[in-house]
Amino acid sequence: MVDPVLFLQLFWVFFVIGLFTFGGGYAMLSLIQTQVVVTHSWLSESAFTDIVAISQMTPGPIGINSATYVGYEVIHQAGASHLVGILGSLTATIAVVLPSFLIVLTIVRFYTKFKGNKIFEGVMSWLRPAVVGLIGAAALILMFKVDWSASIPDISVVKENFSDWISWVLFAAAVVASLVFKIGPIPILLAGGLLGLLIY
Amino acid sequence: MVFEWPYQLCAATLFDYSWIRVIFNITKMDKLAKTGPSETVSLWNIFITFAKIGSFTIGGGYAMIPLIREELVKKGWLSDEELPDIIALAQSAPGVLAVNMSIFAGYKMRGFKGSLAATFGSILPSFLIILLIAMLFTGYQDNPVVVRIFKGIRPVVVSLIAVPMINMARKGNKTWWAWCISFLVLFLVAFMNFSPIYILLVLIVLALCFTLWKERRSGNG
């Protein structure tokens, strides 16, 4: 039996995530990661990476896909049945959309005033680079772990995602394919899966 | 309980939104929204159109823009001038970009009900697809073939997160100040385990103070 408090926590966590996501799905991934993996330890680093992969491959916005998936996984891993898991994904999805709903409908009223407003633009000029940093951090957290318990901080590689040198070659190849050759995420992910199947 | 009152607030919002109508004066807004399409678009049509858009958006919110143009502008439900407004607004509001665009576009067409129909439409396909995958995948997670495939996919996923960041930084970070903010946030979150939410809150307050101070100074000078 799943603790009903877990649903409340799930709702609150995703409501806050929806409220503080500036700059689209990738920024949301970093918030989901810190809340779900780091703060609450609901999911492991590798389970989260799998969810990101599946969210990118399936149609629909990444933010919604990962919220739906994480909501299901958190409840299901707490020992609930599939049906209760659906309730979890419903909770997370509604919670993540609700702040947008309230805020967009409010902004619509003041939009003509907001547009070109210097103070609004000024705040956004600080938030946009912050979002860039957040997305970079999401990638780094999936690569390295920092242990502060020792006197000298210990940096180690996340073994679940980078098991050997081949993983680093795949990583570099995907960066080049995406950055230089502008190949879309779906062919790159499919190629990664195929190469994994052939190599390992 | 710390998270009890927001939950009650949200639950109240879901089941009965009459108090929002009062606070935001939505009835009046509905009339304002009526400037959009020439004829009334049915809610069912809005729902179906956004379900179609949602199920063909692969990747992220930006992939949705050409689909919205194709479906909504060509049908005459929205004008070409309204589209950039919708995108700009959706980007400046927090939340999922695709959802923000749906809310705003739906609102332009049929007011509050239109935004509900558009949002449900754009969410429903991905919700059902992900649910199906989540339920099937949990049984196969330890399957050796699946394990091998995901061993190849995981490092690739990390680079697919890193590349949009590089592109955003190259396009958006025009000042040294912007680069400072980016690197500071990156360091604090990745290596010092700071919560992004507190960092964003502090940044919003600092940016607000700085912008107001600059405005006042330029106003006096």
The geometry of chain B reads as flat
What letter string, H or E per element, gives the SSE order of chain B? HHHHHHHHHH
How many DSSP helices of chain A? 8
Q: Could you tell me the radius of gyration of chain A in angstroms?
A: 19 Å
Instruction: Give the N-terminus to C-terminus distance of chain A in angstroms.
Output: 38 Å
Taken together, the total number of domains of chain A comes to: 2
Distance between the termini of chain B: 51 Å
Low confidence ranges of chain A = none
Which range best describes the helical content of chain A: under 10%, 10-25%, 25-40%, 40-55%, 55-70% or over 70%?
over 70%
| Averaged pLDDT of chain A | 86
Number of strands of chain B: 0
Largest sheet of chain A at a glance?
2 strands, antiparallel
Tell me what the structure shows.
The complex is a heterodimer of chains A (200) and B (221). By secondary structure, chain A is mainly alpha-helical. Chain A folds into two domains: 4-146, no CATH class; 163-200, no CATH class. Chain A has helices at 4-20, 25-39, 45-57, 62-77, 82-114, 118-143, 165-179, 185-199, and strands at residues 144-147, 154-157. In chain A, strand 1 and strand 2 (154-157) form a beta hairpin. Chain B is mainly alpha-helical and 221 residues long. The radius of gyration of chain B is 22 Å and the shape is flat. The relative contact order of chain B is 0.07. The model of chain B is unreliable at 1-32 (pLDDT under 50). Chains A and B meet through helix 1, helix 2, helix 3, helix 4 and helix 5 of A and helix 1, helix 4, helix 6, helix 7 and helix 8 of B.
Q: What's a quick, concise take on this entry?
A:
Chain A has 200 residues and is mostly helical.
What layout of secondary structure does this protein have?
The complex is a heterodimer of chains A (200) and B (221).
Chain A: H1 4-20, H2 25-39, H3 45-57, H4 62-77, H5 82-114, H6 118-143, E1 144-147, E2 154-157, H7 165-179, H8 185-199
Chain B: H1 4-15, H2 18-24, H3 26-33, H4 43-56, H5 64-73, H6 82-92, H7 97-140, H8 144-172, H9 176-190, H10 196-220
Helix pairs in contact in B: 3-7, 4-5, 4-7, 6-7
